[in-house]
Amino acid sequence: MSGTVTGTSGGRGRGGSSAPGSALSVPEERRAARDTAAATPTGTSRGRRPDGHPGGALGAPVERREGRQKVTGAARYAAEYGLTGRAHAWPVPAAVARGRVTAVDTSAALALPGVLAVLTPDDAPHLATPEDATLAVLQGPQVPHRGWCVALAVADTLETARAAARAVRVTYTAEPHDADLDPGHPDAYEPEQTNAGFPGRVEHGDPEAAYAAAEVRVDATYRVPPLHNHPMEPHTSTAHWDGDRLTVYTSSQGGTTVREVLAQLFALPEDRITVVTEHVGGGFGSKGTPRPDVVLAAMAALHTGRPVTLAYPRRYLPTTVGHRAPTAQRLRLGAHADGRLTAVLHEVTTHTSRVKEFVEQAAVPSRIMYAAPALLSSHRVVPLDVPSPSWMRAPGEAPGMYALESAMDELADALGMDPVELRVRNEPEREPDSGKPFSSRHLVECLRDGARRFGWDGRDPRPGVRREGPLLLGTGVAAATYPAAAVPATASARALPDGTFVVRINATDIGTGARTVLAQIAADALGVPLDRVRTEIGHSDLPSAWLAGGSMGTASWGWAVHDACAALASRLAAHTGPLPADGIETHADTAGQADADSSYARHAFGAHFAEVAVDTVTGETRVRRLLGIFAAGRILNSRTARSQFTGGMTMGLGMALTEHSTLDRAFGDFTEADLASYHVPAHADVPAVEADWIDENDPHLNPMGSKGIGEIGIVGTAAAIGNAVHHATGVRLRELPLTPDRVLTGLLSEGPP
């Protein structure tokens, strides 16, 4: 908990007080009215196409098409394809933090009835060198970190495979390791790029001088621990070889990418590989690129000649499938006494593995959010003997906006200014980093509407004045941003003689309702009822498409589907007579359009409001209500959108209060390795979470006018909760999560006002 605030300040912000629990969740009747309204005064009409023509499908609260399959158990996931002769695999993780395998004794394992094989670095199929070094499993004796797969047991049953894996005896030569993230580490360096290709360092003006000359200054360091994705369905693959043809059923966010990677690893033409991702039980980024499960399953199937399923045990996931790297973020904000920022300095230190570089881009949001003539946004990364970090929902934005929005709250406190008004006062006319105009930016509207609905005007700004017995109550606010982008995709649309339509694209539905929304886009472009459109997704034989990630899935897939259906509508309009027996089909490829440079800065924005109750006896923090208001382009399905927004907000609540992992320096491993120790929010933790949006008409995005919504909900939530805890207690905690021990320590050391 480090930080300083210096400078002059005026009087406190707005006076007054509000009763506990006052103000506003969204009433059900208002929600229903919004979902079905024909038009609104502030943007795109709901249920109408951007060109003004009637379209009843888009925007409607349509139920997810696969919902009944999932709740009845009919939906098949990657481990549920009961192929004839299927075997099961279980990995053997490395027990040293760094070293080499010198011997693997498989005799006891192979003696168990039903064991088919134990793959080791000595006899596993040889792979081509992968671009992603985390996939070079069983290719040599080197152990880069604890948990690295050093053997794979394959048996007739899952239980036998597990027993065989436990019977394998591995001998190592251990080497000295380093798992200590220290900002002063001698091997720390400034990367050229972050994980998503942003420059590692951006500097405008003279930020050090501007900060030193500022009338009011904030200097604070915020820390976010390692975080883990933990999808409900673990990383699972079933692989089957038929001669030189490979079929895999895998839990992945992108089947097209899996096929490309497997083709390279096994030196196969892509047309000899089929990848099925029919249903996926969550990913949160960890399934965005292929993980060892699909490679190991394919290797085991090749070695044994049997179909093989590998469902990675949950306790092994933290060391195998990536994590959100920890960050230490120093924020320095300089401002005039009227609240106008003069300098923003956002410096991030994080870790990466020695297997491959992955840099959490936590300083990038500061390049977008606020107008300041001087800016420093930089990253330093320390390579360690740890599991490789990777994508996790809103990589960069989630931890980065926690730090930035916490610092903005500290600045508002130092200025004696309302936190909402401080953000409004620093609204930029153009994107600060690029100088481009925003395609649309309705952050101020989100803040104003959210404040009105939350009852912000009645807030007493003084910390610690609202009490209910031992409980201290407080409210907080934070802004949110996430980039809006699209990448090329291909799709086909076919009109059949029976009056129905089939849309095909290798999109992946990871629980977001992709099938449903793509059908709505198609029905809108075709001008037909939704029930006449069928979607086929989740199979690599379909037209190739981008993975479900980066909040770009629907924007990318929907663009291709829209274009294919628009072309089909034109052909049908010119067609006379009955359709041929196999119908009429059109194709679309958005290459050159979706990836074209834009003269606009394209982002989604939002505002989060939180109310908390902090128990001064136990240190427990309870979130009483969350409200999120978003500006995310045209909302294509109000039901699934609200689900995505509230899901992200719930994940942000977990980031604020319960989720964390500890990297054991002695072993180079994560101590919180399962859901018994890594605590995600339960229903009882989220009694009132409401999400709504500004009706935004943005013509500079894609034919639908939509922005991604899968990640904007998590961004800013943790900061809003942390700011509310400060408002409740007067104690500023700068390390997540805000667990009872940390809260009590803060209360005992600083005490409530």
Fold and architecture overview:
The chain is α+β, with helices and mostly antiparallel strands and 753 residues long. The protein is 24% helix and 23% strand. It contains 16 helices and 27 strands. A seven-stranded mixed sheet has the order 4-6-2-13-10-11-12. Strands 1-9-14-15-16-8 form a six-stranded mixed sheet. Strands 17-18-23-24-27 form a five-stranded mixed sheet, with helices on both faces. A hairpin with a 2-residue loop joins strand 10 and strand 11. Helix 12 packs parallel to helix 13. The longest helix is centred in the last third of the chain and has 22 residues. The radius of gyration is 27 Å and the shape is globular. About 6% of the residues have low confidence.
Short description:
The protein is α+β, with helices and mostly antiparallel strands. Helix content is 24%, strand content 23%.
